[in-house]
Amino acid sequence: MGQPPSPPFAQHLGSRLHLHLLALAFNVLLLVVICVISSQSIQLQKELQALKESFNNFSSSTLTEFRRLDSHGGSRDDNLTSWRNKLEKKQQDLKADHSTLLLHLKHFPLDLKILTCQLAFFQSNGTECCPVNWVDHGGSCYWFSRSGLTWAEAEKYCQLESAHLVVINSMEEQKFVAKHIGSFHTWIGLTDKDGPWRWVDGTDYRSNYRNWAFSEPNNWEGHEQGGSEDCAEILTDGHWNDNLCHQLNRWVCEKRRNITG
Q1: 127: pLDDT strictly greater than 60
Q2: Structural domains counted in the chain
Q3: Which interval of the chain is the signal sequence (predicted)?
Q4: Where residue 129 falls among pLDDT bands split at 50, 70, 90?
Q5: In this predicted model, what pLDDT tens digit does every residue of 218-241 receive, in sequence order?
Q6: Residue 213 CA to its chain's centroid (Å)
Q7: Is residue 113 located within the same domain as residue 177?
Q8: Structural domain that includes position 139
Q9: Phi first, then psi: what are they for 65, rounded to 5°?
């Protein structure tokens, strides 16, 4: 009776099988991306062709109608009024179709960029581009919430995504974040709960960019809930404010692009 395979051989065989499965999954993903891009391209070509045919048909019918009007004398004014209304309606329809097509053409490069980026993300095991629904900017990936949590809950959420609450290092980054949060108070990764103000990623607070509102932070203690203001938020005008950490705010997560999600 032969000896059973040694454990190293079984481990090697399992490793090779795992690599083959990963390669197969990647090839399937690549095929899906190619199909999606091809489908969008074909759809745009169809819409453009339909717009051209609509315009050609309209031109032909217009010419026919004017020839018909030339052959009738008495009711020409009434016919011209009716035809003018038809012309205006058709012009509006053509403008709407043209605007829709331009919108598709405008979004197509972005859709292609997103698909290409996601392909690179999976191919590089998360070291290139950003995960789905994260925004790529300045070498970092940002995720903007659409609900509210306390500051501690928001930071915990970000940590579960291998990230942290956003750390704002420049005016340019401040403008980028403010542009995406809209008219909502939003937590950032700045707190003085355990002493002086500090950023959650260890960035030095004293030498880093700051954008506090006038007279802030003031650690106001006049809230009915009690307690002190130990967590930083971005206000609707973009300036920072210290607030009670148990308030429910939206939040922004940030992670460097070379961190695997």
Answers
A1: no
A2: 2
A3: none
A4: confident
A5: 877 655 565 689 999 999 999 999
A6: 28
A7: no
A8: 135-256
A9: -65, -40
Within a domain: 261: no
Residue 187's pLDDT band, with cuts at 50, 70 and 90, is very high
CATH code of the domain covering residue 143: 3.10.100.10
Residue 212 φ/ψ region, left for φ over 0, alpha for ψ in the -120 to 50 degree band, beta for the rest: beta
In a domain, 1, yes or no: no
Tokens 């009024």 — which residue? 81
Q: Which residues contact 209 (CB under 8 A, 6 or more apart)?
A: 168, 169, 170, 171, 173, 174
Whether residue 24 is found in the same domain as residue 116? yes
Question: With bands split at pLDDT 50, 70 and 90, how would you rate the model's confidence at 84?
Answer: confident
Q: Are residues 108 and 184 in the same domain?
A: no
Q: Which two tokens stand for residue 78?
A: 């009434």
Please name the amino acid found at residue 27.
N
Considering the chain, what is the average pLDDT of its residues?
77
Tokens of 184: 């909502």
Consecutive H or E run containing 206: none
Max CA-CA distance within the chain? 110
39 vs 22: CA distance, rounded Å: 26
Q: What whole-number distance in Å separates Cα of residue 124 and Cα of residue 115?
A: 14
**Residues 139 and 252 occupy one common structural domain:** yes
pTM of the shown model: 0.55
